[in-house]
Amino acid sequence: MLKSPLFWKMTTLFGAVLLLLIPIMLIRQVIVERADYRSDVEDAIRQSTSGPQKLVGPL
């Protein structure tokens, strides 16, 4: 079984797929970090503004 060309081709293909998944996972982590940072910035801006305003006047 270990001398079968099909076995080595499948093993090589599986190894290549695993190696290609590493950069994809790293890029996905960067996207998640940037989304979290954006959310934090939006919250900071929301807290630093005056908030909703109420207009009062004659009706």
Automatic annotation (TrEMBL):
Keywords: Membrane, Transmembrane, Transmembrane helix. GO terms for cellular component: plasma membrane. The chain crosses the membrane at residues 6-27. It holds the Pfam family CreD. Signal peptide: none annotated. The lineage of its organism: Bacteria, Pseudomonadati, Pseudomonadota, Gammaproteobacteria, Enterobacterales. This is Cell envelope integrity protein CreD.
